[in-house]
Specification:
By secondary structure, the chain is α/β, with parallel strands linked by helices. Helices cover 37% and strands 17% of the residues. The C terminus is likely disordered.
Length: 253
C-alpha cells in the first residue's frame, strides 16, 4: 500500500485535474491525502450563490470535504493562506506569502505525511494561474528542504500528451510520461466535481458545457519528475502574492 499526497492551490484543482488518477489509486488500496493551500475564499460564490462572499471559505471547505469523501481520501488538510479576492473577469492572483513562508508550511505537512507519491501543479500553472505556478515552485522548494528524503514518485498533472495539446489547461512545458483513460473511475471524479457547487457556474462558463458531468475530462496526463530534476535550483523563488516573480509570459506586474 502506498501513501499518495495531492497538493493543490485551491479546493477543486486536484479533482478537476487529476480526480480520476486519485480515485484509481484509492481503488487499488492506496491511501490518499489532500492538501489545499487555501480555502478558495477569493473565488466565485456561484449562481445561485451558495451564500455570502464573506463565508465563501467556509462553504468551499465543506465542498472540499465532500469531494475528498467522494474520491475516498483518508484526510484533507488546509493551510491558512488566504486566496486573494477577485471578481469575474479580473486576472487571478497568487497568495500574499513569501517563498519562505509558503515552502515552510508545505514542508511541515509533507514531512508529517511522508507520501510515497506526491502530485501537484505543473510548470505552467495549467492555464497560467499565478497561484498554480507559485504552488509548483513552492512544492519544489519544500522538497529541497526535506532532502535527502524524497518521495518514491513525484508527478505533475495536466502534462502535454498530444491528445490534449489544444486543451486550455495543458502544461505545454511538461511532456507526459503517463496518460490515463479514467473511464473506470469517472463516476468518482464526477461525484467529487459535483460537490464544488460554488464553482459550477464558472466550470460551465469556461467549458461551454451544459452540465458538470459533461465538462469533466476523461483523459488525464502526468509528468514524472526525477529527483535531480525536481530539486535543481531555480531562479526567482523569493516571493509570492502581488510581488511574485512567477509570472505568466506577457503578464504585467
Amino acid at each position: 500500500m502506498a501513501r499518495l499526497l495531492a497538493i493543490a492551490a485551491h479546493p477543486d484543482d486536484e479533482t478537476g485535474f487529476a480526480g480520476g488518477f486519485l480515485a484509481k489509486n484509492v481503488a487499488e488500496g492506496n491511501e490518499l491525502y489532500l492538501l489545499e493551500a487555501t480555502r478558495g475564499e477569493g473565488g466565485e460564490v456561484g449562481d445561485p450563490p451558495v451564500g455570502p462572499k464573506s463565508r465563501l471559505g467556509e462553504f468551499r471547505e465543506q465542498e472540499m470535504r465532500c469531494a475528498a469523501a467522494a474520491l475516498g481520501a483518508v484526510e484533507v488538510r488546509f493551510l491558512d493562506f488566504i486566496d486573494p479576492a477577485i471578481e469575474i473577469g479580473e486576472p487571478p492572483l497568487a497568495i500574499a506569502a513569501t517563498m519562505e513562508e509558503y515552502a515552510s508550511a508545505l514542508a511541515a505537512q509533507i514531512a508529517e505525511i511522508r507520501p510515497d507519491i506526491l502530485i501537484t501543479h505543473g510548470t505552467n500553472g495549467e492555464y497560467g494561474h499565478p497561484q498554480h505556478v507559485y504552488t509548483h515552485h513552492a512544492v519544489r522548494e519544500a522538497l529541497r528542504r526535506l532532502a535527502p528524503w524524497f518521495p518514491r514518485d513525484v508527478l505533475t498533472w495536466c502534462a502535454s500528451a498530444g491528445v490534449n495539446a489544444e486543451d486550455r489547461i495543458t502544461n505545454r512545458d511538461d511532456p507526459a510520461d503517463l496518460t490515463l483513460d479514467v473511464a473506470p473511475w469517472l463516476d468518482r471524479k464526477v461525484a467529487a466535481m459535483e460537490c464544488h457547487k460554488s464553482q459550477h457556474a464558472m466550470f460551465l462558463r469556461n467549458s461551454k458545457a451544459a452540465r458538470v458531468q459533461d465538462m469533466v475530462r476523461k483523459i488525464e496526463a502526468f509528468r514524472r519528475w526525477g529527483r535531480e530534476e525536481w530539486l535543481a535550483p531555480e531562479e526567482s523563488t523569493s516571493t509570492g502574492g502581488a510581488s511574485s516573480d512567477w509570472r505568466v509570459p506577457g503578464q504585467q506586474k
